[in-house]
Every structure is written in C-alpha cells, then in structure tokens.
Amino acid sequence: MRHTIHRTILRLLFAGGCFGFSFWAATYGYRNMQLTLMVSSVPMFIIGALTIWTPLFALLTRPLIAMVDSIFFPGGKLEKPILNLKLPAYLINEGRYTEAQEEYRRILKYYPDEIEAYERLIWLHQEVFHEPEKARRILHRAERRHLALDERFRRIVKARADLEHSETRSD
After folding, report:
1. pTM here?
2. Quick one: which of 7, 54, 59, 146 has the fewest CB in 10 Å?
3. What is the CATH number for 152?
4. 114-122 long-range contacts, Cβ below 8 Å, gap at least 24?
C-alpha cells in the first residue's frame, strides 16, 4: 500500500515538473518568438501526461467501476469465490493433474467441508503422484472434520499404509 502511494506521489511530482516546464517553454517561447522552446513544450507535456496516466485513469474510472459493481454485486463483493468443482474435474480429464491439485486445495481453503474435493485430492496424491503420506494427511484432516468420505478412499489409503508397513517389516 505504501509502495503505491510513494510511487503515485513521485509520478505526480515528476508530471508536475513536466507540465511546469511545458507551460514555461510554451509561454516564454511564444513571447520571445523562440520556436525551439515552443516545440519542446509538446513532448514534455506528453511525457507528463503519460506519467500520470495510470493513477489518473484509475481515479476517473472508479465511479464507473463502483456503478458496475453495484449492478452485478448488489450486496457487495463476495467474501469467497463461487464453488466450482467442474474446473478441477476438467483439468483431471485433460491430464493436468498439478493444476487440478491446486484447484482442489483452493476449494478446500474456502470450502473446508467439501467432501468431493477431499476425495479427489486423496485420489490424486495416492494414485497419480504416489504420495501416500500426503493422502493419509488429507484423510486425517477430513476425519477430524467428521466428514462422511466414501469408504473406497479410506480403504485405498489404509491398504497403501498396510502395504508400506508390511514392506518395512520384511526388510
């Protein structure tokens, strides 16, 4: 926040200097019939305008954006994004498993009781990424929330844990 305020102030000061020089060069050049000063005022004016264009544009469009927000979001902005389980399912179908995993984690951040997100995340860690420890942690997280996960996912995680446990005993 402070960084943008400082940047805006510096832009305004620089643009003010450009506008001041432009005004001085135009008026002094006109009075004394110095064409080079009059012509040099134009690029300085353009540089000043380009310098403050971003904050000026944001300031001028703020009422329009507020009007559009009041039309489409009459109750204000949403506290959390709308639940969309189709996007990560699409990503899985496309074979983009890492992106699907990120989407499911984002869903669980805002909707921590979403059962399908837990199940798909367990499946991704167990079957696709071969990370049984992460799958087990996700299962425990769902169990702590007392969610009714499908029994297949519990069995997948438990079977892998038993398999790993038996492999460590045989070694």
Report:
1. 0.54
2. 146
3. 1.25.40
4. 114/83, 114/85, 115/142, 115/147, 115/148, 115/149, 116/85, 117/85, 117/88, 118/142, 118/147, 118/149, 118/153, 119/149, 119/150, 119/153, 120/88, 120/89, 120/92, 122/149, 122/153, 122/156, 122/157
